[in-house]
Amino acid sequence: MSEPLIAATVIGSWSFPGWYEKFIGDVGSHPDLFDPVDREEAVRDAVWLAIDDQSRAGLDRISDGEMQRVDFNLGFYAYLGGLKPIRRVRHWGAPAHDQRERYRCLEPHRGGRGLPRSQRRDRGPHCDRQRRVHGRRGGGRRFCPVALEFASRELAEVQLLAELPETMDVAVGLVDVKNTWIESAELVASRIQAVLKHVSPERLSVTPDCGFSRQPDTSRWPSPRPW
Predict the structure, then answer these.
(1) CA dihedral sign of residues 118, 123, 129, 130
(2) Nearest in space to 71 (alpha carbons), one of 145, 125, 129, 122
(3) Most buried one in 39, 99, 105, 158, CB count within 10 A?
(4) Strand partners for 207
């Protein structure tokens, strides 16, 4: 089945089911209780849920939800020297970015202290630097798509898309994952129209600004609204 002219896709991460969040914590606290087959089963089930969500949402390109990527770049801070933790401003309530750890830099960074080898290089689904360089030298080969956030910035500097080379595909973020409200289809369509003034549809795919890992898993199910 061929893709539509403008594909709808995701950045990568998907919301963790509640049971999977607990499973990750239990594995960290009591690793001896879970053998490799147990862990593989849990990851496989979580991936299937992410795939099912995206398929039912009608996405043209899907991901595995990054269910094996437990802690993004934030986990690196614990292995860096020269940083002082700052007290969180909020602990309770719905998960959000104001609950993340923050740090103050006191001196030049000292990196790599005890960092597991598997975490020293981002193994996520995004294109790595080597692949981009290879695409540039390939003579006619297309770049790996560059993903840019626009929704949270209200399309500021969207005109700069016209300056990108024709060999570079673009994934534009047109849904703000940090919103407290859900953008309407009409609003997203108007943002696509604005983007198309600066980049051809053949090079374009539409994504949220970032992944959905920080969205509560219950947001996938419709619920009554008080308005």
Answers:
(1) positive
(2) 122
(3) 158
(4) 173
d(CA 216, CA 16): 8
> SS in 3 state form for 74-91?
HHHHHHCEEEEEECCCCC
Q: State the Cα–Cα distance between residues 56 and 52, nearest whole angstrom.
A: 6
Q: pLDDT tens digit string along 211-222?
A: 887 676 545 444
Domain ranges for the chain: 18-54+64-119, 124-219
CA 44 to chain centre: 19
Distance from CA of residue 62 to its chain's centroid? 12
Torsion of CA 49, 54, 58, 62, to 10 degrees: -130
| Tokens 């600066």 -> residue | 198
* Residues constituting the chain: 227
Nearest 5 degrees, angle CA 204-CA 49-CA 2? 35
Contact predicate 51/62, CB 8 Å: yes
pLDDT the model gives residue 71: 60
* Distance, CA of 156 to CA of 197 (rounded, Å): 14
